[in-house]
Every structure is written in structure tokens, then in C-alpha cells.
Design a protein that fits this description.
Blueprint lengths: L1 E14 L2 E7 L13 E6 L6 E6 L9 E7 L5 H8 L5 E8 L10 E7 L3 H10 L5 E7 L8 H10 L3 E7 L4 H7 L5 E3 L2 H13 L7 E7 L1 H13 L7 E5 L1
């Protein structure tokens, strides 16, 4: 991995405590990465530097910039530092690294992600713009669901893409009261996925998909266990934990 200083160009809070960071690319150092890879951030502290890994949330096709997606966790050394980093400042990064990548096949991709686990999936969606794919993204509430305009744009340009935002702390009643969009569904990822892919998942068609799972270690292990319990073959499941 190459170590370099990355200049922060822009920072947006896309939902409460979740920041979308845009870094300059191609001037001091050209980060040549593959969709799904990550960088290692060096975070300065009073006790010395610590390392934190962040998946790249943008496409390698855009050579002028790259994005990271960070959820601020109080007491989290890396997330607090990055959430407070100001545009015009630099941070030391190393990379790219990682083996999480999209299989180059016409197989229907099913993306299962929670929270900032969306980052590498966003990189896939921004790179492979004509693939047949379904996204099930889990967040707690409606206000946690950023990227709605981005998903709409992807859908407008790729009719083979459909997406379901799975809200673990919402109910049908709260969604009706909010009068929100039809892309919102109450429940966890496996519940919503079973509703919309149920007949296929429970039949012979379950292995006609490739499943890409990204999120916390607990979430990834739980979703893998769920898929395997349905009879999905391990060779059809790809994952990234954080």
C-alpha cells in the first residue's frame, strides 16, 4: 500500500451523525483503486497514531476525487476525527487494499448492507451502471436514510436496479403517518428481502443470485447464517465486515 496525504474538498452530513467526505484525487497522488476496496486512515492522538479502515464510497471511474462514508460514534477515535475534519485540511491515508469486489458475470446481484456498510455497495453502483441488481439497505429510521436522490438517479439510468430501504425502528403505522416514499419498508433486511424475493429464495432460484453483504461483524454473520439456512451456496455469498 502507498501512503499519501489526501486533501478534504467537501464534507456533508447526509443524515444524523453520518458524513459524506470528498477528497481530492490525482494531484499529489492518484489513488488507483477497484470498486469495493478500502483505505487505511492514520488518526493522530495524544498517545500516538492509530489506524482505521474505511471503504471507498465512489467509483474509480471518477479520477478527480474519491469519497468516504463515516458514522460518528462518540468516543470513536477515527469517526470523531474525520467528522470534525474541515475542508482544506489533509489526512494521511494508505491504500488501496481489500479483496471485496464484484464478480464480472451477468448474474443478478443482491446487495445487503446496513448503515455505512453501504459505502462499497455505492462504489459498485456508481461503477457498474447497467447491471441487474437489488439493494436492501438497513437503517433504523426514515431520517437515517440518506442518498435518496442518488438512488433515484441510479434507478432512472438503470431500470434493472431496484432498492428497498429497510427501517428497523419504523412500523407500517409510522410510515403511513409520515406519508413517505414507497421505497421505505418496516423491518430488518432479512424480513423485507423475504417479502420481495420470498418465492425465489425458498425455491430452486435462490442460487440464481450473487449476494454481497456489508456491515458490522454481527450483522454480516447474522445475514450469512440466514442465507445459508435457506440453502444458498457459500460460493454465491461475498462479504465485507467492519
Amino acid at each position: 500500500m502507498t501512503t499519501f496525504n489526501a486533501l478534504l474538498l467537501d464534507k456533508r452530513e447526509i443524515s444524523p451523525g453520518v458524513f459524506f467526505l470528498t477528497f481530492e484525487n490525482g494531484k499529489q497522488y492518484a489513488l488507483d483503486f477497484k470498486a469495493g476496496q478500502y483505505v487505511v486512515a492514520t488518526i493522530p492522538t495524544a498517545q500516538g497514531a492509530v489506524k482505521r479502515l474505511y471503504s471507498i464510497a465512489s467509483s474509480p471511474l471518477d479520477t478527480s476525487m474519491f469519497n468516504l462514508l463515516v458514522k460518528r460514534v462518540e468516543g470513536g477515535i477515527g469517526s470523531v476525527y474525520l467528522s470534525e475534519l474541515l475542508p482544506g485540511k489533509t489526512i494521511t491515508l494508505s491504500g488501496p487494499a481489500g479483496l471485496f469486489s464484484l464478480q464480472e458475470s451477468p448474474t443478478h446481484k443482491v446487495f445487503l448492507a446496513t448503515g455505512t456498510g453501504l459505502a462499497p455497495i455505492r462504489s459498485f453502483l456508481s461503477t457498474y451502471k447497467s447491471m441487474r441488481c437489488s439493494l436492501f439497505w438497513g437503517v433504523p429510521t426514515i431520517e437515517d436514510a440518506g442518498f435518496l436522490d442518488y438512488f433515484k438517479e441510479i434507478r432512472e439510468n438503470n431500470p434493472l436496479f431496484d432498492y428497498y430501504i429497510c427501517l428497523s425502528r419504523e412500523t407500517l403505522e409510522t410510515l403511513k403517518q409520515a406519508q413517505n416514499e414507497v421505497v421505505f419498508f418496516p423491518g430488518r433486511i432479512n424480513v423485507v428481502m423475504e417479502l420481495y424475493l420470498g418465492p425465489t429464495l425458498k425455491g430452486q432460484g435462490k442460487n440464481q443470485f450473487e449476494y454481497y453483504v456489508c456491515g458490522s461483524r454481527t450483522v454480516v454473520d447474522s445475514l450469512k447464517t440466514y442465507l445459508f439456512s435457506l440453502g444458498v451456496e457459500k460460493s454465491n455469498v461475498f462479504f465485507e465486515k467492519y
